């Protein structure tokens, strides 16, 4: 399950540089008397009888895993890709909430998702043109999904909208998303209490994404401090779940 850590995301005001796998292996732990079979390192997925003969004169081939394209690209590229991935995760949360609401609130949330997707696509276009963002496979994939979701949200908004509908809406998108984030925290706490870690992780992660986005958008310092406090509390619970072995996450920094 993928867990988003959003400490370093600041610029898009809505929260990854992707961590590359570190190539570690048995070579660093070779003993000086490696000729002795008893001191040879364990080879994963091998039986003792299948271990390579390091005393043989024949060459031993080590096959390195293929690295993602982003490993070799500049930091600015990875930061922009991280922002695009976060917007995608955020809009998925927003549209999921929209599906549970009535017509007016659903339209309010879909308009918010449309704004987020439009901002992300504009960012991708600008960064591709100036060369900061490279057209890697990961970039092409996330931009393709963003574009598809934008078209779907636009079609849904046109279908739901009617003259004066948004003007008569009593709730803002921020208020709806804040209430949903708090509800997710409460439900996750109950799931955790009754031994349902998989469900509580999903709820905590949704709350984490929404709270961070709201904290980045608000211009009121007291609101920002409160939202950040809640978000950090959620991240603490996610960290504890991971330490307990319930979650295996790929940390990314946004």
Give the tags:
single chain; 254 residues; mainly alpha; Methane Monooxygenase Hydroxylase, Chain G, domain 1; three-stranded mixed sheet; 6 helices; 3 strands; globular; disordered C terminus
Question: What sequence of helices (H) and strands (E) makes up the elements?
Answer: EEHHHHHHE
| Largest sheet features | 3 strands, mixed
Secondary structure: helix percent: 55-70%
Q: Strand order, biggest sheet?
A: 1-3-2
Mass-distribution shape: globular
Low-confidence residue ranges:
5-46, 249-254
Number of strands: 3
Put simply, the count of helices is: 6
Q: What is the SS-derived class? A: mainly alpha
Rg calc: 24 Å
Strand residues, percent: under 5%
Distance from first to last alpha carbon: 17 Å
Mean pLDDT: 78
Question: Can you describe what's shown?
Answer:
A three-stranded mixed sheet has the order 1-3-2. Among the domains are: about 70-160; about 170-250, Methane Monooxygenase Hydroxylase, Chain G, domain 1, CATH 1.20.58. The protein is globular. α1 (about 75-100) packs antiparallel against α2 (about 105-130) and α5 (about 195-215) runs antiparallel to α6 (about 220-245). Mean pLDDT is about 80; it is low at about 5-45 and about 250-254. About 55% of the residues lie in helices and about 0% in strands. It contains six helices and three strands, in the order ββααααααβ. The chain has helices at about 75-100, 105-130, 135-160, 175-195, 195-215, 220-245; strands spanning about 5, 15-20, 250-254. By secondary structure, it is mainly α.
């Amino acid at each position: 399950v993928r867990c988003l850590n959003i400490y370093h995301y600041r610029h898009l005001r809505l929260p990854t540089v992707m961590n590359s796998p570190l190539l570690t292996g048995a070579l660093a732990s070779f003993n000086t008397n490696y000729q002795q079979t008893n001191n040879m390192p364990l080879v994963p997925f091998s039986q003792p009888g299948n271990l390579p003969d390091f005393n043989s004169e024949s060459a031993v081939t080590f096959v390195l895993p293929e690295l993602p394209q982003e490993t070799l690209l500049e930091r600015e590229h990875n930061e922009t890709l991280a922002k695009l991935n976060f917007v995608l995760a955020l809009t998925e949360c927003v549209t999921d909430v929209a599906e549970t609401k009535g017509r007016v609130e659903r339209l309010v949330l879909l308009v918010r998702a449309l704004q987020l997707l439009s901002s992300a696509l504009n960012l991708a276009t600008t960064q591709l043109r100036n060369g900061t963002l490279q057209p890697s496979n990961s970039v092409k994939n996330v931009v393709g999904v963003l574009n598809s979701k934008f078209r779907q949200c636009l079609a849904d908004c046109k279908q739901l909208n009617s003259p004066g509908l948004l003007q008569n809406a009593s709730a803002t998108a921020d208020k709806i998303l804040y209430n949903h984030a708090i509800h997710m925290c409460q439900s996750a706490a109950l799931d955790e209490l009754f031994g349902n870690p998989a469900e509580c992780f999903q709820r905590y992660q949704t709350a984490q994404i929404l709270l961070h986005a709201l904290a980045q958008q608000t211009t009121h310092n007291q609101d920002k401090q409160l939202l950040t406090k809640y978000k950090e509390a959620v991240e603490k619970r996610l960290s504890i779940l991971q330490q307990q072995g319930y979650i295996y996450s790929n940390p990314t920094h946004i």
